[in-house]
Please model this.
Amino acid sequence: MKLSRRGAITLIVAGVAIVLGFGTLAINLASTSSKLEEQTAQMSLLKEEYNSIYSELNAEKEERIKYQRLYDEVSVRNEQLEAELEN
Model:
């Protein structure tokens, strides 16, 4: 099958367009991949920070509970002593 000059030019132009299209696609894919890696790293850092803050809050909560228990024990003992003093 023999192509006309016009047909050959059309095929060449189409081929170049396809190659350029794939090149642009490859560049976009690389850019998107890079952004995804950056966001994944950022999410990892945020997760570490969240876990750290969560651990600190739990430690503070446990300490508050400990002091509340001590306060309750002292309050009960104080009431017992007041009752003894009244008698």
